[in-house]
Amino acid sequence: MASLRGIQQPELSKKLFKLIKSENHAIQAYEVAGRERISIASQLSDWGEATNDDAVSDLSDKIGVLMSELGEQEDVFAQNLEDYRGILKQIRNTESSVQPSRDQKTKIMDEIAKLKHKDPTSTKIVTLEQELVRAEAQNLVAEAQLTNITRQKLKQAYDIHFAATIERAEKQILLARHGRRLLNLLDDTPIVPGDMRPEFEHVDQARQILNDAEEDLREWQPNIEPIHSSAGAMGVNAMPVETSRIAPSVMSEDPAMAQHETITQSRITAGEGQHLAQAQLPATGEVHDGPYTGQSTYSQSETA
Asked: How high does pLDDT run on average in the chain?
């Protein structure tokens, strides 16, 4: 069915249709990777408990908590990519709406050329030439709308994409650094047969590392260069405000465009941070929501 939709796409929008479809596959892969990471974290905790080694059991459980948070970051990233993908669809839909005006213009030009070759004195040529003038005017508006939408939405889409990539990377680095702190609590000094391992003395320190990780995630803020835009002067029909009153729109109505117009903030799921929060229940007695957010920086500059 998807292949059939691809074949039915106007020529102008086929390449972007294919890109958007490929992005959907990539997003699904991130979602699967996140679920697998959470599952592996649970398996690590179960294995650690089965070793009958207090230190290994405690640390593997806490490392599993951090690994689960890494999995949650994949899911957040996938949701942000859905926002980016939705904006690309606006460009694709605009391309699809412009194709008929191009086709109409080409069709009339072909008819005129054939008629001039077959019957140069035909009175129908004048009529077709008048139709061509109207078709060219309509196409001129459509092409202007297309380039306006393409440039604005391309900046918006990849602002979201790159902001989400930075958020994911920085939070993964944060979690990984705390994971390495946990590893340094494990004494791997060799023992000889018959010797007993000393009691694990870093339970409180390990718990504090998880507290630190939770706090760092909660306090994380994006620190990225803003993406500037001059598209604030564009009217509802994708034309400059001063000309939008007289320029007719030839684009079909697109509900998705209105839906995604204001999407500039990375999406945070309710579950993000829950693994760290739940891990602290014995020590704190409450669950933290982990209200840390990241956002894209796309901003429209007002023009007079």
From this structure: 82
